[in-house]
Amino acid sequence: MGGRGRGGYRHGNKRGRTQRRDFRDGRPDVWKKPRAEGEGVADAERGWQPFVTESQAYEKYYKKQGVVPEEEWDLFIETLKKPLPTCFRINGSGQFAQDIRDQMQHDFFDYLKEGIEVDGQMLEPIKQLEWYPGQLAWTLNFSRMELRKEPILERIHEFLKQENEIGSITRQEAVSMLPPLFLKVEPHHRVLDMCAAPGSKTFQFLEMIHKDDKPGCFPDGLVIANDLDVQRCHLLIHQTKRMCSPNILVTNHEAQHFPGLKKKGREYAAELKSADRETGDAVEEEMGLLFDRVLCDVPCSGDGTIRKAPDIWKKWHCGLGNGIHPLQVQIAMRGVALLKVGGRLVYSTCSLNPVEDEAVVGEILRQAGGSLELLDVSSEMPGLKYRPGLKSWLVRDKRKWLTSASEVNRHRAGAIVPSMFPSGKAWDQPEAGSADSDPEVGSRRVAEEADTEDGKEKDNGKEEDEAEEVEEEVPLEREVSSLPLERCMRILPHDQNSGGFFIAVFQKVAPFKVHPKVKEQKNEKRQRNQFKEESAGTKDEPADSVKEVFVNSKYAASGTVKDIEMEDQKEAGGTDEVMEAATEEVEELNGRSEKASGESRERRFQQQGKWKGVDPVLFLEDEHVIQSLITYYGIKDSFPLRGHLVTRSEDVTRLKRIYYVSTSASEVIKLNFRAGQHLKMSSAGLKIFERQTAKETIEHCAFRIASEGLPVLLPHMTKQIVHITKADFKLMLTANAVPFHAFSEADFAKSLRSLLLGCFVVVLPERNAKGEIDLTRSTAVGAWRGRHNVSLLITKAESAQMLQRLSLADEEPKTEEKEVAEPSTKSEQEGTPEVDANATAEREVIAKSKP
């Protein structure tokens, strides 16, 4: 039976749905509790109640674990009951990072460095995070009420909101900034963020790979951001596109099953066959999708975030950590398998529970078998206050404290596993031939014991509660781990007024081989058995019928022939000729040569996506479209389009958007096609072109420059660009549409008339010391050229931000609008494409604007 899904139960692959027949009879509503007399009135009179900020279960658990020294316990609990301060960091790879920092220092921080008084109370000054490099991260601790009462605080709040919208500043919890820093990402690294949403850490990775960018150049690195939830993937896309990077792919997979994209086919088999055993392993490792850096910021109970999510107080129980422990181990081990030798992996949680922290780290080291080293990174972050990892802890289950796996009741063996304990040693296995060794007998006995225990719990609940209090007073001898878990880092909230966090940093020192067991679906198993029967009973039968069965199976499509061949040869002797023929058929199917197919290698990648409900990622190969873009915008050869433009639709005539991917992202997309499209991509690269709506411009070029793609394309454009003076630029910012004759500079109006109808770029130039135009510091905005007027392709809110950046915010935009003549005809207004109201969600119409 299928698992429980959102919106109902799943039966097989279908979602359960309530039918009309279910309402034919007048059935009582058993789900609705009867309300006691006067209950609603009492709730209304009581009004809003504050969150509960205490939990006896929480305090008992962590006191017993010794996570916090006894003398610091009161300070620890007091800190947890206070709201979490607001933290933000400046985009370090931005061109104006230092300018923004200096502006904030001069306008805000210097004024507040001695603190400020509100309602007779001194507020804490804005503080810099000492451990964050470059003095680019800050924290402030003001409530909403205090922001409203003090004008300077309200101005700071508005400034941070505006800068966050355009990507110059990111609001992020302080401890959440740590994992990317410990990964030490370089511009050439391939990075995997396994559980990436909402995207603040992914944004940090993009900053790191773009930190040394030169205008018009892209790094060799790549960031793949993955998340299980589709809606959270959309949030992830929205967060990361502020970076305007073509070096990112967003995927939608279970982290523990993230595909490795191993190559299949004749070429791959030949390489392995020609190599020896050790070299073969190396070849196989290089042929898949592996990463230099992997972040496993895994799902957890989240009790370290209790300051910003106070509802956790009421919901917390020890079963949260116990239940998610196996999943955390699976995700981390999948990350180890995808990591290159010499690469770094960071495991992190926002939980203080050792079952989710040190226990998982210990199991990672045990399963890795010497291929991983737990690093001591205490010297890499000066100024960071942390506590070393625990080497001893207890496991709590069903009103009992457990010191080792040998104390686990048999019927709880599935809920409490040996990896939760410091030693990781398993309980004694039953002898062969006993009742416990028989799966059916064992499962039946477990069910009977569970029923018996449940009955006891219902009848003797009071006695067990009393026994619990007595049991807790008994001293326990704890296991002590022999692994160097003290190298882990625990961030406690009261050390530096932050949230709780846990970090462990690994380095891969040797290859790690994994052979995952894939559970077969019923139809796959039936096809597999059918092939076995036919191949075993038809030795002299022509191989075509057997090949047909084999080719139609999923195993042929994925190319996994080797394991099936070995198993089938054991069970069905004398089928060497049949298996050889079937193997050749599969190799021909997966590794078909270019001569036989009659298509080029690039052409072979153009296929329909295999994921239901997800548009495929296809390379744009329509030469007419590509050439029209090159001709219309004068794109240089230094910015290659062929092999870098991707779409999400096969019908070129109906394309709405075109995306640009870097060379590193393009290689992964091609590898995904070769491997059978196992990678489910929600987003690829950077949106660079959008279809134009005005009909008269389609004869020249059917696409205009997208706001996110302008910073990338501008250094390589030679056409449809005009330079503007500050006064005329102000005029365009304050008016919806400006006639040519309204501009003060005659040369500018003349250059506008020389443009083709449609999209163009307005540049407010900034010159360097040599007097040359510096595009890296100039302001560029997408615009539209109609027959008699021009307009900027931005919203009013974005125009206001531009005016503020140019020190023109004191002037009233509405007054200027009245002074500008409107287009004389309706057709001129229709010649300008409508600016989407959601364009604020597609930030960075400004290519690179100066604060």
Characterization of this structure:
The structure is a single chain. With 851 residues, this protein is an alpha+beta fold. Helix content is 36%, strand content 15%. Among the domains are: 86 residues; 70 residues; 132 residues, no CATH class. The strands form 7 sheets. Strands 10, 11, 12, 13, 14, 15, 16, 19, 20 and 24 form a 10-stranded mixed sheet that branches. It has a 5-stranded antiparallel sheet with strand order 21-22-23-25-26. The protein has a 5-stranded mixed sheet with strand order 27-29-30-31-28, with helices on one face. A hairpin with a 2-residue loop joins strand 1 and strand 2. The longest helix has 21 residues. The protein is globular, with a radius of gyration of 32 Å. The two termini are 58 Å apart.
User: How many DSSP helices?
Assistant: 32
Range of helix content: 25-40%
Give the percentage of residues in beta strands. Answer: 5-15%
C-alpha geometry: globular
Q: Which structural class is indicated by helix and strand composition?
A: alpha+beta
Report low-confidence residues grouped into runs of 5 or more. Answer: 1-16, 265-269, 275-286, 429-475, 517-524, 534-608, 808-830, 834-851
N-to-C span: 58 Å
Oligomer: single chain
* Average pLDDT level: 75
Q: Which radius of gyration do the C-alpha atoms yield?
A: 32 Å
Task: Specify the biggest β-sheet.
Answer: 10 strands, mixed
Q: State the total count of DSSP E strands.
A: 31
